[in-house]
Fold this sequence. Notes:
- The complex is a heterodimer.
- By secondary structure, chain A is α/β, with parallel strands linked by helices.
- Chain A folds into two domains: about 10-135 and about 190-275, no CATH class; about 140-190, Nuclear Transport Factor 2, Chain: A.
- In chain A, about 30% of the residues lie in helices and about 20% in strands.
- In chain A, the strands form two sheets. Chain A has an eight-stranded mixed beta sheet. A three-stranded antiparallel beta sheet of chain A has the order 6-7-8.
- Chain A starts with 7 loop residues before the first strand and ends in a 13-residue tail after the last helix.
- Chain B has a domain at about 40-225: Rossmann fold (3-Layer(aba) Sandwich), CATH 3.40.50.
- In chain B, the strands form three sheets. A five-stranded parallel beta sheet of chain B has the order 2-1-3-5-7, sandwiched between helices. In chain B, strands 4-6 form a two-stranded antiparallel sheet.
- The longest helix of chain B has 20 residues, at about 200-220.
- Chains A and B meet through α4 of A and α7, α8, α10, α11 and α12 of B.
Amino acid sequence: MVLGNYKQAVAARSTDPDILRKSQDGGIVTQLFAYALDAGIIDGAIVAGQSDEPFKPEPMVATTREELLAARGTRYSISPNMSLIKEVTRSYGLDKVGVVGTPCQMQALRKGQLYPVGLRDVADKIALAVGIFCMENFPYQGILQLVEDHGATALENVSKLDIGKGKFWIYTERGATVQLPLKVTHKYEQPGCHVCLDYVANLADISTGSVGTPDGWSTVFVRSAKGDDIWAKAIAAGAFETKPIDSVKPGLELVTKLATEKITKNQKYLESRATEYGVGKALRNPYI
Amino acid sequence: MGILESLKALLFGKHDVGGEKQDQKPADKPADVIVEKKASIIKEPKEEKPVADKITVGHVHMSGCTGCLVSFADNYEGLLTILDKYADLVYCLTLADVRHIPEMDVALVEGSVCIQDHIAVEEIIETRKNAKIVVALGACACYGNITRFCRGGQQNQPQHESYLPIGDLIDVDVYIPGCAPTPQQIRNVCVMAYLLLKGNDEQKALAGAYLTPMMNLAKAGTEACGCDIMTQVINQGLCMGCGSCAAACPVRAITMQYGRPQIERDLCIKCGACYAQCPRSFFSFDVVNQYEGIMEAIDAAMQP
């Protein structure tokens, strides 16, 4: 149940060396959108692009392969992709929208489709929603402090950030690697993440993340009917190389373990908000 | 998913899952249309389908700009489907020739109430008496919206200066915030209200779950502002920076800076869309986890 509903789970990576060259793991998101763009499934996608500050993501609408490639990789900071969800159908004029987001952004998207309070004519234009696994996210200042203070590395010299194998990894342009224990990162997590009850983007059409598969590969959950259809077409078009998920290590067991940990921890925090703050007072619970 | 299957069965059942409707082709010339229509009005009965289990709906116009009604109408053929299959419009100044507020299942009230206008006050009280469910349609009825800024002195009724959201005068059951509320949100509430009143137990449960957050908004009060995002979400440690509020704002008062909403409060018209759109204002796993089925069912329900 912590993994949500899915039609299939596989290990996959892009077959495109261009995409893999600077992708975070298997290049799943970039490849999916690149394929969907080629095949006319989407007119463009809201992605976390690069802003003018290093590793500060900025939501942008990619309508070409080049723009998609420019947005490859994970930046571990907040990219409010939902902020463009209406604009993408207006000034960008897209009828078939792709969007990538964290589990909470997928929740926002589906709530927005069912309760489009301020999202006129948007709900039926979402053609492909790709979710990414997410344990927590950091405010930009948090990343800055982790990399520059704790890691003693200038952020503009960093080529890649990664969280994996229990560590926060900083890779620099000149080949140095700095690792921080995850313990020091916890205090910089954004508070809103601590009430989140979703690790693997249960509400996406297709969700993906590095956990569960070897380096260079990604775990992929195909969830909705729409996602299933697009995934099948992408496979048929040779966009991905796949392996059965039970043939790879560490596999779904680790995904399940991490998902359970996150959800259990956050459930506990939600309960504590109801009882442990104030006297006879409760903090607001968003879930009804 | 039993609920959804039966929901579809109910919605489709009346119409035997489309297919035969391709025969109808549009008339070639405007002239043809007029001739055909005249003939058919005389020959055929007005209503082909049984109307027994439709609900009755009225649109009550208080001080508003009619944008909410226009938004309802912007469901285009969907509006016709709603009126054809689910609801009879028994009162609507613009679309129905009825002078006094009749008894009805659902009253969609647009606009706030000017308390210097005694007719408006009487009508909103009348509405509460005559309607089983009162829906505040749009931000003026829910929260006052731009009528909150009125200080009177305008022509041609300078004495009309105090405008109150309907919830300050009567009990309101459901809020549909937004300026204007979106056609799709109004449509979804209509379908769900129909299921709540006419559906079987399962459908009532689903519709109840869907409408609960909007009922809770109605209970929560009659004031809205971009500040709600600050006080109810960020101050409560719930914001994760998705940007839904910025997308929902009809006046672009919200931009996202460093992953958090920056709200220009002078631009805010107090429509409540940002807070209602926020996934951390309310979020029901029971409802949203079934998004695929619910959206399919609503689409199916909207087939003519």
